[in-house]
Amino acid sequence: MNTRIRRAAVAVAATTMAVSLAACGSAKESGDKADKDSGKKGDDLKIGLLLPENGTARYEKFDKPIIEKKVGELTGGKAEVVYANAKQDATTQAQQVETMITNKVDALIIDAVDSKAIENSVKKAKDAGIPVVAFDRLAEGPIDAYTSFDNEEVGRAQGTALLEALEGKTKPTIVMMHGAITDPNAALFKKGAKSVLDGKVTYGKEYDTKEWKAENANANMEGAITALGKDKIDGVYSANDGLAGGIIQALKSAGVSKLPPITGQDAELAGVQHIVAGEQFMSVYKSYPQEGIVAAEMAVALAKGEKLDSIATSKADNATQKDVPTVLVPVVSLTKDNIKETIIKDGIWKIEEICTAKYKAACDAIDLK
In this structure, are residues 81 and 295 in contact, taking their beta carbons and an 8 Å threshold? Predict the structure, then answer.
């Protein structure tokens, strides 16, 4: 999918019960009329939230509670967030959209399992008068808003870190372990990484990892080791921490004692622990709170019939919709040197969660305590 992103880049007391009831009725009728006349709804909203899978920690641990909390803050606790997780099944997600339409949600936040397959579902929501916020992945179809991270910058950060780790080597041989082809972000990560790596490394083997699964990355890495030789791999571009875990396991199983530098993304707990232990060189930390807050702000504003001018200052295009109001959140390259100032400071993980007994010595060695 070709995606073009352009940056530019919250009572009167009654004397009797009868008067009280009459006053409430009058206020309600007046409020309803005002909302109808202005084209806006009140805070008593239903916001649908559809996330793609639960294998990656971020969705259930961060995105869902962050969005729920912000929607509550924006509506004085009057709005309801209706949640469903597709568990990496595009057909299930399409059915979940149908359910959201039946339940008459006022706005829908969708992180698509498959950005192309979701297009028909987005059209159905639009036909039902339900605005759609594409969250984290740029879904196809007539979406009303989009928020994600600067995904090409994620790839550039990964590629830059890998080159730094390989400094001194001439045209080192690397393995490229990309994400799933059904995820448009994977193509952007790849584009960003290659913009840094092209001409400076040799691409020994390259894979698109089905469903972003660690076991598939593990199998791919086993194939790369067989094809190239375990001692001929100077570095590994891994699109995220989950894939990095499968890669590390494959290298260890092949008897590689000194692991090559491996990249990652998402600052997952296991990924951070791999970084602390020296098994993974870096990850990319993305501020889930900031992204989730923006998605909630967009959804509530759209549900009320408000414009997004004060929220979104840039635009994005998908294959079917131009100039979609967009917010891109910046990212940070995470290494063992900045764990305290990033994920610890932001409350993503606590030191005691990272520095379990298995990793205590490694944590002490980098003064993480």
Answer: no
